[in-house]
Amino acid sequence: MKACAIALALIAMAAPTAFAQTAPAIGSSAEMSRLYEADQADRKSLFTADWAVVRKNDSERRARTKALLDAGALHSAEDYRQAAFVFQHGDAADDYLMAHTLAMIAVEKGDASALWIASASLDRFLHAIGRPQIYGTQYALPADKPEVTQEPYDRSLISDAIRRDLGVPDMAQQRQRMLDYLAEQKLSKKP
Fold it and tell me: Which tens digits make up the pLDDT trace of 102-115?
């Protein structure tokens, strides 16, 4: 009886993977690719972009991406990674949480590069709920401060080794990126 119970427990634990049906591979969505490309194009020049226009475009892209998700039109790891970027550029904590979820699906579907957007969306979510970021992916130019910042940022929680495993720049690379942003910011302010 005990052996039967152990065997049933082992079968139950194996069931999600052993008996799961896998969906046939379906190509990536051309529409999602277009939405993603437009999202990235809006961010080519961070310090000179018209952010009112970008926010409006972001809102429209999120609405269309949500419609694609709701219709079951996204299937590939690339679709989910691209959708994560669109939601990452949202304006509410739930947008960033959705971005994180979509990135995790992309990772599960085999896109290891989506680990970065999973990390970045978690950092952005943490900022949105008033907590410090933990990976160091978020840079901001607050209205009340003259320079780009990563704050609030808990630099002690995550090691550089973990950052590297997630495709996130280590602390030295982040410092260099900050210097690059500051230089770009100064150049954009020149008449």
Answer: 999 999 999 999 99
Q: Are residues 112 and 140 in the same domain?
A: no
Task: Answer whether residue 40 shows pLDDT above 90.
Answer: yes
Nearest residue to 62 (alpha-carbon basis) of 102, 27, 26: 102
pTM, to two decimals = 0.80
Q: Are residues 58 and 126 in the same domain?
A: yes
- Last residue of a domain, which of 79, 100, 130? 130
Alpha-carbon distance of 65 to 26, in angstroms, equals 18
CB of 68 closer than 8 Å to CB of 29: yes
Nearest to 77 by CA among 14, 29, 41: 29
pLDDT at 4 over 90: no
